[in-house]
Design brief:
two-stranded antiparallel sheet, 15 helices, 64% helix
């Protein structure tokens, strides 16, 4: 018997869909733990354990969904001009946040007691390669200023906010097209740009984030998320309608397959035990670079993310009361203050990298570090610590 799709009223609080805040909160917990790069019982479950995906894809796509919901309301209430101006103001705010974070790290280097290596260099998972992300010692202030203003320097843990800044600056164009019922055109253009850039590998700006998150590639997640947000009632009702449960089951089966594939990784990050072996390491590496590359946003990674978030969204919708009681108190506040959390977690990375505890390489100590970091972030959000100064 077909049941009616849910109205979603149980999930709505002050105009917010708490399911999205729930998912964003989970993503932000993953961000905090994977950027505190210590092997713990928590990090072992977060580094490509739900398939070949990362928190970055979830952050970008969910940000697009939320923006589509919020700015459709503003568009209908205040008109396109006001909505566009507010988007550009948000982009400017994010840009100034980037500059503030970069400046704070440049100033911290003059304090001898603080080691800033963890946020000024990127170290490959195997530790074989180290890339400097800030100017060399002795660089002129003019050079440093130019690189900062163009976001050519900055901690790798914060680079995705640079991408977010550029995407929001472009978002009014997409919002206008959606308001004129050109959704199909937006989809076709977004996918065309993605596919072309998969071949060209063109960098839209000179910013550092373009190496890990090329704008013309990663726009696919953000703008398609924005489309989902703009049409969220129809999309969400469809996913929650029991008549469409086969789609959810198919996504769950596909997700299971991706999880099994991830178990075959011959060099899993933060996974100290033997993994399953379905083939040789060389074949796996070629497959990963071809279909699951993070920077190029391989089509396999996109499918993995679709399967993951369709499954998670359907699950928390179906079992909302249980999810809310068990984890809602933790993840919803964090999800609602995701930019705030993103900013502060940079300084958590600095804090713990300047302590001797991680150097012990003790999984129990590292687990305590991750738990303490999550608890501290949650407490800061609940107490609204410096909310009047730090953007949310």
């Amino acid at each position: 018997m077909r049941t009616k799709p849910t109205t979603g009223q149980d999930y709505v609080h002050h105009g917010r869909d708490l399911r999205l805040d729930f998912l964003r909160g989970i993503v932000m917990l993953v961000v905090v733990c994977v950027h505190l790069e210590y092997v713990s019982l928590i990090s072992m479950l977060m580094w490509e354990r739900l398939g070949l995906v990362s928190s970055a894809e979830g952050f970008v796509s969910l940000s697009g969904v939320v923006l589509g919901i919020v700015y459709k309301k503003r568009l209908l209430k205040e008109g396109f001009r006001v909505a566009a101006i507010k988007l550009w103001k948000r982009a400017w705010q994010l840009y100034t946040v980037n500059i503030a974070v970069i400046t704070s790290i440049l100033l911290l280097q003059y304090i001898p007691a603080i080691n800033i290596f963890s946020v000024t260099h990127w170290v490959s998972p195997a530790g074989a390669t180290i890339y400097p992300l800030f100017p060399e010692a002795g660089s002129s202030w003019l050079t440093i200023l130019k690189q900062a203003l163009l976001l050519e320097i900055g901690p790798h843990q914060f680079q995705i906010i640079g991408l977010y800044t550029v995407l929001i600056a472009i978002a009014p164009v997409v919002l206008y097209a959606l308001s004129k019922q050109k959704t199909l055109w937006v989809i076709l253009l977004s996918w065309s740009v993605y596919l072309i850039n998969s071949w060209l590998q063109y960098r839209f700006t000179s910013a550092r984030f373009e190496y890990g998150f090329p704008t013309l590639t990663w726009q696919l997640l953000f703008f398609n998320g924005m489309i989902i947000g703009f049409h969220h009632k129809r999309v969400f009702d469809y996913l929650c309608d029991s008549a469409n449960k086969r789609l959810v089951y198919a996504a769950a089966v596909l997700l299971t397959g991706f999880m099994l594939l991830a178990l075959n990784n011959p060099e899993p990050v933060h996974w100290p035990w033997h993994t399953a072996t379905y083939g040789n390491a060389a074949t796996y590496k070629v497959m990963y670079e071809t279909w699951f590359s993070k920077s190029r946003l391989g089509i396999g990674r996109i499918l993995n993310n679709i399967a993951l978030y369709v499954t998670l969204f359907a699950f928390i919708s179906r079992y909302w009361q249980y999810c809310y009681k068990v984890l809602g108190w933790l993840v919803i506040p964090i999800g609602q203050a995701s930019l705030y959390v993103f900013i502060w977690h940079i300084y958590l990375v600095l804090l713990f990298s300047n302590m001797p505890l991680p150097a012990y390489n003790n999984i129990w100590i590292n687990t305590c570090i991750h738990i303490a970091s999550i608890a501290l972030i949650w407490l800061m959000v609940k107490k609204r610590f410096l909310f009047s100064i730090v953007p949310r």
